[in-house]
């Protein structure tokens, strides 16, 4: 249970996870992706003056690998990644980012599976690739915050895809903790997010994730996560652990979400820290899209100058 949940009334029990096993106790720490964009940049630019700082402060911190249409045969991709982590007794962090109509309202990361049925097949293979090896999965960032321009039929369709995804992990990946993404404190209020999480099948998930690819402080996210849990407890009779993306929240948010200047890396991946875990889910230095200090870039592109400045907070 997240330490932050102890303040909740005892009547609100933490709902049991769909998975009994704890992957954090099955491994000897978090996995450092040997092929992250930061690692690749450092390897390709050893004489660049920024390389030592990026190598020590970013490239060797455990971070999530994102999987989507670019990942090829998805079961092979997830299986290869968690298999490599398993070989060295480490816990891998994975992000599933391929839902139909992805980033439908925002647009900077638009794309995803070609249809709801294509997504169901993709996510089933994603979970099957992990199988019984330990893993942590962040399920579809932005998917529950991104409702502003959607019809009720589209919302129902999306929630059905997420519920189906959670069922696949329950069935095929018994040693995986899955966190259903819940946006960030600046998006939907806690009552609204609690309802969306519940309707998307949160009871089947291990917990929910906050602040993915955003900049709100860990304290702000912890307060929001606790507020969401109060709503879950009051409305539905259960609470869940939550994790916070701390990769870029060292200076907090200035109100912009798309490549704002002056941000800083946050607390490295760890257990605890106000949430169940603080995780680097977004890779510091990877662009949010063609905006802000990443003007001219595409979402996910590694920008060494942005990464370097983020280490020092300027």
Automatic annotation (TrEMBL):
This is Glucanase. InterPro entries: Beta_cellobiohydrolase, Beta_cellobiohydrolase_sf, Glyco_hydro_6_CS. It comes from Streptomyces aurantiogriseus. The keyword Translocase does not apply. Residues 1-20 form the signal peptide. Keywords: Carbohydrate metabolism, Cellulose degradation, Disulfide bond, Glycosidase, Hydrolase, Polysaccharide degradation, Signal. Its EC number is 3.2.1.-. Substrate binds at residues 66, 187, 214, 257, 282, 286. Pfam families: Glyco_hydro_6 (PF01341). The active site is at residues 142, 288. One of its GO terms (molecular function) is hydrolase activity, hydrolyzing O-glycosyl compounds. It is an enzyme of class 3 (hydrolase). It comes from the Bacteria. One of its GO terms (biological process) is cellulose catabolic process. Belongs to the glycosyl hydrolase family 6.
């Amino acid at each position: 249970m997240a330490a932050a949940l102890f303040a909740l009334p005892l009547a609100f029990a933490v709902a049991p996870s769909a998975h009994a096993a704890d992957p954090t106790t099955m491994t000897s720490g978090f996995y450092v992706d040997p092929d992250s964009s930061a690692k690749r940049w450092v390897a390709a630019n050893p004489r660049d003056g920024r390389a030592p700082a990026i190598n020590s402060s970013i490239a060797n911190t455990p971070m999530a690998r994102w999987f989507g249409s670019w990942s090829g045969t998805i079961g092979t991709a997830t299986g290869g990644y968690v298999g490599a982590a398993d070989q060295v007794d480490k816990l891998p962090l994975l992000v599933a980012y391929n839902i139909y109509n992805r980033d439908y309202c925002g647009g900077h990361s638009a794309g995803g599976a070609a249809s709801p049925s294509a997504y169901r097949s993709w996510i089933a293979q994603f979970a099957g690739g992990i199988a019984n090896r330990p893993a942590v999965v962040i399920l579809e960032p932005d998917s529950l915050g991104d409702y502003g321009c959607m019809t009720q039929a589209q919302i129902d369709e999306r929630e059905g895809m997420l519920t189906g995804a959670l069922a696949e992990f329950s069935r095929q990946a018994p040693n995986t903790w899955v966190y259903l993404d819940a946006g960030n404190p600046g998006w939907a209020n806690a009552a609204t997010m609690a309802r969306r999480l519940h309707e998307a099948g949160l009871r089947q998930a291990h917990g929910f994730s906050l602040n993915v690819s955003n900049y709100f402080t860990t304290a702000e996210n912890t307060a929001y996560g606790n507020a969401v849990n109060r709503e879950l407890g009051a409305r539905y009779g259960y609470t869940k652990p939550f994790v916070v993306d701390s990769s870029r929240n060292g200076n907090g948010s200035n109100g912009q979400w798309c490549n704002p200047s002056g941000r800083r890396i946050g607390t490295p991946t760890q257990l605890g820290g106000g949430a169940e875990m603080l995780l680097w889910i977004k890779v510091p230095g990877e662009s949010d899209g063609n905006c802000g200090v990443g003007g001219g870039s595409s979402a996910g592109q590694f920008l060494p100058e942005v990464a370097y400045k983020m280490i020092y907070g300027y």
